[in-house]
Amino acid sequence: MAEPTLSPDTWANVARFTLDTTPDDFPDDVLDAAALMTLDTIGITIGAGPMQAGQIARESTVALYGAGRQDLSARMMFDGRRVSLAGSAFAAATQTDNLDGHDGYNPTKGHIGVVVVPTLAALSETTPDFTGREALTAVTIGYEVAGRAGISLHNSVSDYHTSGAWNALGVVAMAARLRGMSEIQMREAMGIAEYHGPRSQMMREIANPTMLHDGSGQGALVGLSAAIMAELGFTGAPAITIEEDQVAHHWQDLGSFWQMQHQYVKPYPICRWAHASIDATRAILLEHGLTHGDIAKIEVNTFHEGACLFQGMPDDTSKAQYSLPFAVATMVVHGRIGVEHITGSGLSDPLVAQVLDRIIVTETAKHSDRFPMGRFADVTITTTDGRVLESGDIHARGGPEAPMERAEVIAKFMEFASPSLGDARASAIRDAVLGLTDENSKFSDLAALIFDAP
């Protein structure tokens, strides 16, 4: 196998962007976007806390990833128990990943905030306090590096890999910046993280939904482990998703085009491949004032990956979050999709089961051709009185194509955070996160609120 041809200019640009920039080098609207995505992710972390997968992640971390050195330990988010730095990020990322309501980026076919926010929280436990704007700068660096690593990976290999395979590199970038690593240490850590990253095949999880989800817990664990190993002198081969010449063009706009501003926010805690179908159904229901009793048949036309989602009535939360027909049926019956619909008795809702049996899902070439840059579907509903109602092509809400309003994102945070924390603590976290953009803010203003158990 031939050795890859490396691009030293690309690496130099990544190193400068990660280690040498200041918050003043980042546009204010980019940092505003970072604050909003941070808030959205924390809301999902909180909402996922009581779920079985989150509980297992935290207990596994206590059992397996304790810290032998106090200076490399960190509390787990919304739990408070002290574990290793890498373990803290792993627990929160795994927990967040299992409530599929966190942000994503279309070109990567995956998720970044799910590791960035847990990494920021963990790193804050091992470094001196830093400003709110520095926190948002680190968040932005994590997004920008991870996003380009993801695009590079997807465009240079044949399999579709989970987010943990590439978002680990964003974790390394954040650690390098906040821990003051040298360029040489960062380069070794990038190589370690890429080499050890979980190159797990995403479509296996789609075919058989489990708590593995998008592999991001392992991405966080590998990324922070790689950073500490590099600090201690461990070496790694160059990260070819950054340094190989054939992917250099994916990095040329680093620091000029801000992926941070092009993330999507999920209005529902469901795989986004189902969102266009949900939104198309929702639009018809609202326009015509329909209820579940008015519907004889729902025909969903979507892209290949969406059509591959789980088809039956789910018997656990993982299947529920990866089921397009279940999500559409839930929207028809309840007019919304919340945590209560994908857990507990929501999994055996008889009305949802009845509507699900009336849904037909078909792959459509025109929608497949636009994936992953577009997530389109169209829906036709036949009513019990014989009307045939068509949605036309609908793009999933929440991204640049059909953005959610800032107020909607903030309201979403409160919806997911308040049931566990209460309105007072949830409101304090909301205000602290959005206040990170202020010149005089400190990350400790937020840190004081995100570690104690509910």
Outline the structure in words:
With 454 residues, this protein is α+β, with helices and mostly antiparallel strands. The protein has two domains: 275 residues, 2-methylcitrate dehydratase PrpD, CATH 1.10.4100.10; 124 residues, 60s Ribosomal Protein L30, Chain: A (2-Layer Sandwich). Helix content is 50%, strand content 7%. Strands 3, 4, 5, 6 and 7 form a five-stranded mixed sheet that branches. It has a two-stranded antiparallel sheet with strand order 1-2. α2 packs parallel to α18. It is globular, with a radius of gyration of 21 Å. The N and C termini lie far apart (53 Å).
Task: Please specify the SSE layout and strand pairing.
Elements lengths: L7 H12 L8 H21 L3 H13 L8 E3 L6 E3 H13 L15 H12 L7 H23 L9 H15 L4 H14 L5 H6 L8 H16 L8 H4 L31 H14 L6 E8 L1 H4 L9 H5 L2 H11 L15 H7 L2 E5 L1 H4 L7 E8 L4 E3 L3 E2 L10 H16 L1 H12 L9 H4 L7
Parallel strand pairs: 3-4
Antiparallel strand pairs: 1-2, 3-5, 5-6, 5-7
Helix pairs in contact: 2-4, 2-5, 2-6, 2-18, 2-19, 3-4, 4-5, 4-10, 5-6, 5-7, 5-10, 6-7, 7-8, 7-10, 8-10, 12-15, 15-16, 18-19
